[in-house]
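User: Structure tokens for this complex, please. No commentary.
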Amino acid sequence: MAQALRCGLPSVNYTFQFGDVFAAWPLLLKGTWTTIQLSFLAMVLGLVVAVLCAWGKTSGPRPLRFLINTYIELIRNTPFLVQLFFFFFALPALGLRWSPYTAALTALVVNLGAYAAEIIRAGIESIPRGQVEAGLALNLKRWEIFRFVIIKPALRAIYPALTSQFILLMLSSAVVSVISADDLTSVAANLQSQTFRSFEIYIVVAGIYLLLSMAFSALFKLVFNATLNYPDRK
Amino acid sequence: MRTFGTPEFWFILEAARWTLALSAIAVFFGGIGGLAVALSRVSPLAWVRGLATAFVQVFQGTPLLLQLFLIFFGAPILGLDINPWIAAGVALSLNTAAFLGQIWRGCIEAIPRGQWEAAEALNLSYTSRMRDVVLPQAWKIAVPPTVGYLVQVIKGTSLAAIIGFTEITRAGQIVNNATFQPLLVFSVVAAIYFVMCWPLSLLAGHMERRLASTLTR
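Assistant:
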């Protein structure tokens, strides 16, 4: 390949060849898009799960609270890779048939749901009791209090923690490549087995992930400014 | 075909020592690196701060799996043998250094400015200011999140399975390939992780609450 460069260190006797990697740019682009899509879907669905769990944990009946707690503790104290294996290998043994992509998405949603539920619960508990009592005095229903009184300031309080959890999720989505879910890292692994330029491929892909995490945090800042950035008296 | 029995269970449980050994390596070297990162990030020298920030940005902005791959496949370039132990140890240590460094920087910065200024007014040297004034106080608030982070380290070691390091997850895969009882095998694997991580999570939560109550008093 033409794009070869020699590394100058004396002990290093290796010719870096990025040609094969850059020649595969359509594949890499497709993988990047799959990773973005997978992470974004997991963020949205995981957030829904998390809000429901946080609501159940703070104001649900006792058995429900116990169930939600068990779910949260189980997920937070086991590795994502094992959860992924569980969804991809163990559940199909019970008769459930699904694609690697769906299994990966489910594992990511279940994982994020547990972490984000704890973050959101902390946010809900940061709302002063008086606010909720004011809502009750205005004869709002419980879900109305949740929807109109609690959720927005709570989201604002936890926004930094929540968004960094989102970025961690996007990064841990690289793990789903072990079940070949067509994400960016799977594409890299395929290219690696075809070209044997492992180091070059993984350094380029690591660079793409770095750009993705910067892009996501810039996007989150924009969303914050557009939706949650109201003046307060603190 | 084998069925899952006591020997298979022991095979997985015995692999737990490699998970623990790898976690210990990551915490030891990552702890040293993390202290260096934390001190660099509050250094008076701009280039030192910049370097530490870049390090943290790179290691927090890329997947741990890719860091593992880069070190695993990058070692031969430097003329070293491919070795899952070294690759996993180095990658996890660097990753832990970045995250602990970031946690500890927050703790150092939480120490009121007045303490720094008082130390400066007493003409204490940089070493003494850090060692005798700032770090002992920062240490107190750093312990709960550090214990909490240990859980992340233990879980992170599971990725070493992907480069062929036989710890709990890899042992589970091996047993699963022989028995085809994934539900049972991966439940056992998950349970072993849970038994290691849950007490640490509870301890971290307990310490956090105790610290919060002493701080508000």
